[in-house]
UniProtKB/TrEMBL annotation:
<keyword id="KW-0378">Hydrolase</keyword>
<dbReference type="InterPro" id="IPR029058">
    <property type="entry name" value="AB_hydrolase_fold"/>
</dbReference>
<protein>
    <submittedName>
        <fullName>Esterase</fullName>
    </submittedName>
</protein>
<dbReference type="Pfam" id="PF02230">
    <property type="entry name" value="Abhydrolase_2"/>
</dbReference>
<dbReference type="InterPro" id="IPR003140">
    <property type="entry name" value="PLipase/COase/thioEstase"/>
</dbReference>
<feature type="domain" description="Phospholipase/carboxylesterase/thioesterase">
    <location>
        <begin position="23"/>
        <end position="212"/>
    </location>
</feature>
<dbReference type="InterPro" id="IPR050565">
    <property type="entry name" value="LYPA1-2/EST-like"/>
</dbReference>
<comment type="similarity">
    <text>Belongs to the AB hydrolase superfamily. AB hydrolase 2 family.</text>
</comment>
<dbReference type="GO" id="GO:0016787">
    <property type="term" value="F:hydrolase activity"/>
</dbReference>
Amino acid sequence: MVAASPLDPDVVLWSAPVDERGDRPLLVLLHGYGSNEEDLFGLVPHLPAAYVAVAVRAPLAPRFPMPGYSWFTIDGVESRDPAEVTASAHAVWEWIDKVRGDAASVGLLGFSQGGVIALQMMRMRPRDAAFAVNLAGYAFPEPAAGDAELAEVRPPVFWGRGARDEVISARFVDHTAEWLPGHVDLSGRVYPNLAHSVSAEELNDVRVFLEKQLATPKG
């Protein structure tokens, strides 16, 4: 298996200091291709304060001249390396296992590439992710070791995407629309005027979804 570099602990952004985290649920934010940990951290003021939000930086550098960081390499419109996807998902889980402390649960929220990693993490360890939010992302179109177990556990997943999103291939969108209902408890929405981005309307839907997870007993 391709081994991804460990996540850099010096660039992680936390919404609360160590002494204020306790057993509060952890919400891990996974940015998109060519971005960094500061991107999704800007959403924190709009998310339920009960979560301890933490934004991490992807371990890879995109191909020049793209700035920022990536979870896996993109060669052309369609090509992605499944080994890199799995390796990055493993790297995030490895980091979470070291820092989660007494967190009551772990939820995942990713945008674009980060959404792919959020779902891949859930597919690797179906019982360890309380839920996933996939914004403008997709389910990677390769079987994963935990897919059968995931279909039994059926954790909650919110999938939001824009009808005008021209970044994500229709092939990936179609696969995700077919695959998710058979593996998770799916909710979500297609936003008619949204491109490859997050709107205020979508962010409000995400907040409602996250609040619902707080009210749902785990285990």
